[in-house]
Every structure is written in C-alpha cells, then in structure tokens.
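Weekly modeling sync, notes
Attendees: AB, CL, MP (scribe)

Item 1: holo prediction request
CL wants a bound-state model with magnesium ion before deciding which constructs to order. AB pointed out that an apo prediction alone won't tell us much about the pocket. Agreed to run with the ligand included and paste results into these notes for async review.

Input as submitted:
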Amino acid sequence: MTVKQYKIVFLGDSSVGKTSLIARFMYDTFDANYQPTVGIDFLSKTVAVDDRTIKLHLWDTAGQERFRALIPSYLRDAAAAVVLYDITNRASFDHIEKWVDDVRSERGSDCTVMIVGAKSDLSPSRVVSVSEGQQKAQDLETLWSEASAKSGEHVKTLFRKVALSLPFDR
Ligand code: GDP
Ligand code: MG
C-alpha cells in the first residue's frame, strides 16, 4: 500500500508563529527564543486520520519580503495552505488577505486554506477578536482556528481539520 502524500505550506508575516506551530505539532515542544527561519524548511510526518494513513510534508516559509518571490513556486503543488496571524498583532491580521490571495492566484480552489489566529495563550493582550477572525474566514471562504504553540491548545485539532479536508481517492 502506498501512503498518500500531501504538501502543506505555512504562510504569514514574520514572527506570527509558523515555525513554533510546526514544532509543537512535530515534536510537542516550544521555544520562547525567536529563531528566524531563513528561506524554506520542510519536515514530514505520517499521521493516521480515521481509517487512513497519510504523510504530510510541512513547508515552513520565511515571511520576510526578500523571500516572498519564492512563495509561488512553493505553492505550486500544495494541497493545503495554513495562513497565520498573531492575535496580538493587528498588522499581521490585516495582511491575511494578501497571503490568501497569493494562494488562490497560484492554486485556485485546488488547495484547502485555513486561517489560524496564533498565540491564543496571549488572549489577555489580544487585539484581534475571535469574531473578527471567524468573519475573515467566512469572507475569504477558508477554514479557521485559533491555536497556541506555547500551550498546545487546539494544535492537534487544527492539523486534524486540515487533514480531513484533503482530497482522498480510495
Ligand atoms: P515565525 O517567524 O512565524 O516562524 O514565528 P516563530 O514561530 O519563530 O515565533 C516568533 C516568536 O513568537 C517566538 O519568540 C516564539 O517563541 C513566539 N511564539 C510563537 N508561538 C507562540 C505562542 O503560541 N504563544 C506565545 N506566547 N508565543 C509564541
Ligand atoms: Mg519561522
């Protein structure tokens, strides 16, 4: 039996928490020290989703402008894109639409898109409300979740939601 493989790309401004979300999912760890991602990294994990086993290739990207030119080529065969904003950073939320546009212009509707409000443990200092996040997802016709790489809250369910949305031919 061959295990079906899917490429999932993580997008969003610098420091929103892309690398940390991936690290929590992959290794169940969290590092409070910021290590900027240079260029693009990828990691793979085989997961069981209900009765199927699939392999996820997680593509971490750097949000810096100088790497943006690379993004279309990395989106080319993506099955899903996870676009993050930081719930304590309004600008990162304002840029969500631009990131989702990048995905849609490269992949049309062939790619699941999920918007994630990251750092939900910082809720006391949030500047983006839950309902604003949900509304944005509704407007852009994407999935949505908040999550915390620090506490782990909603991280597993978020990946599960993405995995369940992937096309599967039996
Ligand atoms: P990236 O540039 O999008 O990859 O962001 P990083 O994952 O490198 O995270 C940027 C900074 O935010 C780091 O200092 C992380 O420790 C911190 N961070 C990431 N996720 C969370 C989170 O869920 N909660 C909190 N409190 N801090 C986080
Ligand atoms: Mg990073």
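Recorded for review: Strands lie at 4-11, 40-49, 52-61, 80-86, 112-118, 143-147.
Action items: CL to compare against the apo run; MP to circulate these notes.
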